[in-house]
Amino acid sequence: FEYRFRRKDDDYVWLRDVVQVDMKDGRPCRMRGLMLDITESRRVKEARRKLENQLRQSQKMEAIGRLAGGVAHDFNNMLQTILGYTEMSLLEVEAGSALQESFQEIEKAALHSADLTRQLLAFARKQTISPRLLHLNDEISGMLKMLRRLLGEDLNLLWKPGGELWPVRMDPALLQQALVNLAVNARDAAEAGGRLTIETENVEIDQAYCRRHGDAVPGEYAMIAVADDGQGMDSEVLEQIFEPFFTTKQAGQGTGLGLATVYGIVRQSEGFVNVYSEVGRGTVFQIHLPRSRSSAAEQPEEKIPKTAPRGSETILLVEDNQALLDLARKMLERLGYQVLAAASPKQALRLMEHYAGQARLLVTDVVMPEMSGRELWQKLLERGESQLKCLYMSGYTANVIAHHGILDHGVNFIGKPFSTYALAVKVREVLDGK
């Protein structure tokens, strides 16, 4: 037999009890045996079992992430065509007509699809991020009004900021996305009169903690805890909550991407998430973000103008997808630019050899069959186009311009799908050196 004893100091030990029963005249007359302390071997066995489960889960999540990232990348290219031509068509049709309403419905569906692909890319850690130094208490305080509107009147929001919280480096838009997803989940799980609590504190993670939590890395972290007193989850549900498209909600009430998005955002920000839950007692999500030692002041974000800025410069446009090439050319020409359009890097190089003028900007896809967008730009610079600036566009970035989705310093990027307005603002920003 194997069983557990509680000692006087309230610690537990596991024992293996090996018993032999002696018989006399067909009846048991004596028991003899040996008790072995197997606490350590059970601990090692349990640790190995947990590591194996974590490895299997990690491999499964990685495989799903690759699939999701690939699907989202290709889908973004198609959405770019749908949204771009819908946007242009809306400028041509008569206001208030049935045709305008039809195009608006197409645009609405395409924008919703674009949101879903962004969530897939967040889970797959293949989205583009621009992290900056953040003070979490300030960022969360600025979100409280929006979160309270999201939660509604039936759920109370409590905010408990920790003192002297360490700064972190993170994209503020992604922090907001993660907290909104957790708030929506809490709202759906809670009953009227329930409570959602958000609190922050500094935590130091050691090796012992990491042995119990597979995603953790030793170090100093700013931690955000989001706790609700809702329905809670059992162990079977907990094992699957970060997998994309897994949901406990009824059909039509959720995509199953909310928590998968949170997982991807935090992992791409070099942090980790822990979840504690008990059926009937609620759930706590703990987001750990690594402490930043940087003290550099961040530049305030500039207000984006309400009207799309225009220009007259010459732009070299390179895109190996012919439909997207035609669309981007029309967008730029509508904004007043002179466009040299090339369907491949080699065609772009030939165009520039015979072009008598000077192109001011290269707008190029990141990954193309003959060479990458970065390699094309380097070749053009080497050929004497020293004033040529570069703007990359892609469904998601590749490691030629980013590492784990984090843009290299000085890289200009616009993600697909983009609107004419977004392209206009970004092109002017690069040309004007902002």
List keywords for this structure.
434 residues; alpha/beta; five-stranded mixed β-sheet; five-stranded parallel β-sheet; 17 strands; 42% helix; elongated
Structural notes for this entry:
With 434 residues, the chain is an alpha/beta fold. 42% of the residues lie in helices and 25% in strands. It has 11 helices and 17 strands. It has a 5-stranded mixed sheet with strand order 5-7-8-10-9. Strand 13, helix 10 and strand 14 form a beta-alpha-beta unit. Helix 1 packs across helix 8, helix 4 runs antiparallel to helix 7 and helix 9 runs parallel beside helix 10. The radius of gyration is 28 Å and the shape is elongated. The protein starts with a strand and ends with a helix.
